[in-house]
Amino acid sequence: MTQRKPAWLKINLASGKELAAFKELKQTMRGKTLHTVCEEAKCPNIHECWANRTATFMILGDICTRACRFCAVKTGLPTELDLAEPERVAEAAEQMGLKHVVVTSVARDDLADGGAAIFAETIKAIRRRLPLASVEVLIPDFLGNWDALKTVMDARPDVLNHNIETVRRLSDRVRARAKYDRTLALLQKAREFQPAIPTKSSLMIGVGETVEEILETMDDLRAADVNILTIGQYLQPTKKHLEVVKYYSPDEFAMLREEGKKRGFSHVEAGPLVRSSYHAHEQATAAQASIAGAL
Question: Shortest CA distance to 71 belongs to which of 165, 6, 199?
Fold first, then answer.
């Protein structure tokens, strides 16, 4: 049965200065033939974030080799591998004057390294142009290729993000080719490669999980030494995708935020419209301070 969307999920459209800033940033992206996950994944916060000069660049093209049942990004066989893309991303970040740059990608299972080398070059290009900016990467699982992961970690992003997306019981149904335990292994391996770099993961809820399973997933992520957790409401992008089973209330999200804090995450961002890169700069700062204090 289709769930009625509650009032707290109402999104206010941009107007005035916010709309002007949104259009300016969109023009910058199109001018450099860049993609953003904000647009491709139909993020509900796009107007707010873009108006605040924050965007998540999506590299390696806009066609994903996987077809996850929650995701609006196009799927198929990619033909694009643009070696000049890292420099264009860095140019756009510089033009926007970003202080925290988030870079993600489609899954590229057609490439031997899953696109890890392009991630590394993008980090380096941003560092050259914006030496004071922090860089966060949200990576695919590279099908468990730890050499590919090491390539990314050796480029020393400020935050390594890889999303677990859902609870163990639902993982195979919700995600395509990704594996729950492989995600945990990647996050733990990233900390082993670079103990000073915080790791981050995200849960979308409302696809049929129980609260107990959410808490178990938190425990699994903490066992993998993950520092930052974001939790948001799943919203069905099209009728072809998974239906929403439950809309969680703001109070329930507040409870989950407190449960995450109890478990030792350095930062927990939880709310109906929270997505992985929402308030990313604040998350990174909190996690880096926590790790520095522990080392």
Answer: 165
